[in-house]
Every structure is written in structure tokens, then in C-alpha cells.
Amino acid sequence: MSFTAPGWGNFLTGVAPTAAVLLIALLLSLCGCGSSDGKTHLTFQIWDTAQRSGMQAMCDAYTAQHPDVVIDVQVVSWNEYWTKLEAAAESNTMPDIFWMHTNQLLYYADFGMLADVTDLYNDVESGYYQNHFSDISLGNVSGSDGRYYGVPKDKDNGVLVYNKEMFDQAGVAYPDDDWTWDDLTDASQKIYDATGKYGYLAYLDDQLGYWSYVYQNGGYILSADKTASGFNQPGGKEAMEFYIGLQKNDWCPDQNFFTQNGAGATFWSERGAMFMEGSWSLLGALENNPKMDGKWDIAKLPKAPNPVHTDESLDQDGRACMSNGLCYSTGAHGKKLDIALDVIKYFGTEEAQIIQGESGAAIPAYLGTEESWRKAWDKFDYKINIDCIFEQFDYAIQVPYNSASPRWKSQVLDVLTQIYAGNQDVDAGLEKIESIVNTETQKKLADN
Amino acid sequence: MKRKLSVAERREENWGWIMVAPTIIGLFVLNIWPFIQTIYTSFCEHLGFGHYKFIGLNNYIEMFQTPEFWKATWNTVKFCILTVPVGVILALFVAMLLNTKVKFKGGFRTIFFLPLVCAPAAIAMVWQVIFNGDSGILNQLLGTNIQWITNPKTAIVAVSIVSIWSSVGYDAVLLLAGLQNIPKTLYEANSIDGAGKVRQFFTITLPMVSPTMFSVLIMRLMASMKVYDLIYMMSDDTNPAMADMQSLMYLFYRSSFVSGDRGYGSAIVIWTVGLILLVTLFQFWAQKKWVNYDI
Fold it and tell me: Which of A212, A298, A391, B253 lies 20 to 30 Å (CA to CA) from residue B130?
């Protein structure tokens, strides 16, 4: 086959101008970030679609006062959020404002990726943070150096969700404030006997599972100075054994079942009587399960009947619930740092936190504005006992994280699944978990 | 001595370079350079945000001492053994059926090809429902009570079934093209000589389609050794059978992106690349024994 090659002459007259036009178009599109309307455009990255409108409402309130700023709320799913944010941090292209999670804050803050916001409110009020946010909220935004790297956004805790109909059928009284673990197992057995439905759904989870049991029992996951594991210490060990052992009862499905069906789906399809759920999911649950109206309610978590007392124990009479909170952060090297800081400063004010609460997005972290969250429930005819969520904050405990958490969390989960699978006995497993947490923590401390 | 090129030939050469440039540049930027970086990363500890500390062979030493790693290697091998032979044979069978004179041939071809155009996440979700040990349709059909996805013995089988199901159509289409290239005259001559259908298959069809089969085999084996997405989507961190179904690539994902230990993750990747290289070299050596390039 003969092939006549076009010469450079043809190239210059035909191809080159086309290529040049394409190249210019490409360059122009790359410069598209420079806005043409003369306003400052900020991006605000979050992971929860359900909170989008609440976040948008806060942004609208800010831009109403600052017409020269435009804020674009972007939702990135939780599964990609951290991979994306880390890649963006490495290439210095972080979003201008973003949500930060306790689990990751230390990693980002200790590497100098987050702007220090400790002095953000100095011109407003001295001790602004201490006056308006709880110790847990401030613990969640503190870096290893004790400085603040985010403005507290919200707070949450876990509650016991129960099916009233099944309790009635079994003739068991609804969970009340004095409920203990024994009442939980008794009720489960009675409901199972009477209805054939599952009782308490004790699925493998930390924040919505064994963590609160450990603290209720006078144990701890991490010691107060966050350097030592309590998995294999008296209170912790006993609680872990209790919680893991729940799946041995006829009234509780095993982990095989939970992996395939999920505890929430089991409860909402009326196959189980109780499970632990986060306060952040309840509004959505009410909205998505209209058929369950009148059949369900929430209660405080049951307390430990005989909590252990040690030097590390919090001694809260067997009561505890885990509380986490997110915060608003901005990158330390952002190109629009001043404006981004001004926006998150606004997000931490009473006004913005009330907007967030009323939208139903989450319970505001700003002390005294929590009640605004109730307003989001007004539009629903069926009322559940949300008082218990607020009351639980009295003895809430900050979710246990340290800078080595990303390293030990998945390893701990591996051992726990082996225990649940029956390939590892509980005693040896807890010993192993304790050594994983301690080793990784020591390694991290030595690195720093 | 090198012959001097004429002006026309030089022009043609210039054009050749320009034509391949986008691909070559893309290959270098997107494949070769990251690969070199991965090799380097496997000798480092990731401190965070792209900062690395050179630690020599430590990642490899740690890796070879971890039972979890050997388990994942074995799981990957097991997955290949389960999916590749069955998958390729099934694909050949389907291709031969589609190559005969059946009604609705176009319809059948489309149906077999459909899994390929479905989103993998959707496929995994549907199969999760089918495999559900509590209410799944598979147990109801078989009258069994097997926890397909969470039983350590069946979990990898379940994933293999989905993998075969989703790849058979594509492989069959490739093999179908190979089958259609076989001249009809060969079969005619063969049947005049008195050969039956079975003999025709082994003396004509199989040797003539063997080059296509070889490429399908290589592609399928590489894909199986790199399996990650199916396991990620069909399983869950809290699955009691995780240790018995996680592949090397899944372990890499967890090390690099969940635990943030990218050095260790890179070491797993390099080990997997080595394995694939070894298997592929073996296949190229073995093909001389069974692949027929004569027409």
C-alpha cells in the first residue's frame, strides 16, 4: 500500500491553525477559575447530601451580608471524601472550606494542613470558644499541640430505637431511664418468645456499638491521655465480652446476618425490636418510614448494672453515650484564606448555628442553640421522644481517637471480625487488640 | 551503515512521531512514571501527605512475615483457579452456540453481552440480594441454607460466580469473532472425510480459535489477579469471611487508602505485578505447545 505523507507545508496550512485554536481553547478553560463577575468564589465541601440544604441556608445568610462572595456547596460521598481531600492537600488545591472529622483532624492538623483558628474570635470576645462550646466539642477540634483547627459544627449521640408494637405484644414495659443491660436482655428474650421477632440487634460497630458499653461499664477504649488501650482492662474487657456475647442468644442474629442485612433495615422492616442508632439518622428515618408512624420511639441507652471502678473510670453510675462532632476547617495555605476564615468564623456564630439547627441538618455545637434542632421535627405529625437525646449530653463522652487511629482502627476491626467468626477466642483477641492499639500509638508518638 | 533518508521518508517519519506522540506521552505520564514511583514508594514509609521516608526493604520484610498477606495471595490464586478455566470454557461454549443457526441470534448475543454494560455496583447489589443467606433467591431455589457471602468456605465461590457471569459475554464475543474467521471449507472437507462433530471440534475449531483463546486467557487471568472491585462491593469491613475472600488488590486498597500506609500498599502492588509477570511469561512459553498460528 502506498502512503503519501502530507508535507510540513500542508501541516502549516491545515493542521497547525486547528491545533492552535484547540490549544488556546484548552488554556482558556483552565483559566476558567478566574471569575468574570468580579466576585470571590469559594467552594465548600461536605459529605452528607441530607445536610446540603442546611449548609446552603447558612451560606445564603453569609452571602446576603457579603454580596461579593459566592459559595458553592459540593457533596462528595464519604467513601471518596478522604482520598480526595488528601490528594487535594498534597497538591495544595483543597476546597476553601470543608467539613473535618475527629477521626482525621489530628492527621491533617499535625501535618500543618489546617489553618489555626484559635484566635479567630479574639476581636469578638475573649474565651469565645470556652464560653460557647462544650469540652467535647473543643476536644474534637484540638490538634496535638492544643490549638484549634476547626470551628465546632455540631454534636450527636446514639440512642436506643425500639418498636412499641413488639413491646406491647410481649407485654414488656417500654425502656425507661432506669433500664440496665439486664432489662435489655430480658426484654429481648420475652419479645423473641412472644413474637418470634429478634430482640436487641447487637451488630459489630464501634460508635454505635461496643464503645458506649465499655464506657458505661467503667472501662475505656483509650486512656484519658490517649496513649493506652483499655480493651483488655477490667471494665473494658467485661463490656466487650458482654456485647460480643449478645449474638450467642437466640433473640439476636449473628454477624453473618448483620453483614448481609444491616441492623437498621432489619428494624425498619419490623423483624427486630431494638437497635442503637445515631441521632443524625433519626430525622431521615422518620421521613423514610411513614408506615412506622406510631409504632416506634427512642430511649436513652441502658446503663451498666455493675460498673467497674478503676482510677481511669469516669464513675457516671453506669451511664455513658458516645458523642462526636464535626467542624468547619480551611486549608492552611489556601489562596483565599482570609475570606474562607471569615466564612467559618460566621459559621461558628449563634446566628449561623441556629440556621443549621432549624434546617434539621444536625444538633448545633454552640451551647444554648441546641433546641433550634427541635424545629426541624415540627413538620412531622408523629412525635418521638427527642428529649432523651438532649438529656444524654449530660454524660456524653468524646469519641476516642488519637493520632494513630487510622493505623489501628482497621486492624482492630480485623481481629473483631475474627472473634465474631469464631476463629479467635475473646480473651486472646482482646489481648491482641490491646497490643495493636498500644504498639501503633507508641510508634506514632515516637515518630512525632 | 545507516542509509540516509530521503526528504519524503523523513517527512513520513516526522508524521509517524506526531501520530504516536499523544499515546506515548499518555503512556509515560499515566502508566510508566507512576509505576516507577510505585517501585520507589514500596521502599518507603508514608509519613503523610506525600512525604516519604526511605526504609529499604522493611515493607517487604514486614509483608512476608504477615499471615494475612499470604492468605490474600492464596485467595487471589484460588480466585484465578475458580474463574479463569471455567470462565473461558463457558465463554467458548456460549460463542459456539451463538455461532450456530439459532433463531433470535442477535437477541441472544445482546443478552450475553448485557452484563458488560451494567454498572458494576448495580451488578454487585443485585447479586448480594440473590446470595442473601436469609432471604436470598438462590437458597430458596436450591432448598439450602448457605450463608454464601459470609461463610468463609463459600464467600470466594460466590464472588467467582459473579465474576464469571459478568465476563462470559465479553469473552464470548471475542471468541465468536475467532470462530467466524474459520473457513467453512475446512468443515466441509472434514465431514466428507467422515469426521463427526466432536472430532471436528478438536481437530478444527479448537486449533483454529486457539490464538483468540490465548489472548482471552491472558486478559482474563490478569483481570482475575487484579480483582478488587467485586470484593469491595459485595463484602463489607464487618464480614466475618473477609479474611478468606480478600484479594491482594483489596489488601492494597485497605493498606494504602484506609490505613494510609502507602509504602506497604505499594509493596503489595509490586508483589502482584511480579506474580502477573511470572504467570504471563509462563503462558507465553506454554502457548507454543497448544496455540496454532497456521492457517
Answer: B253
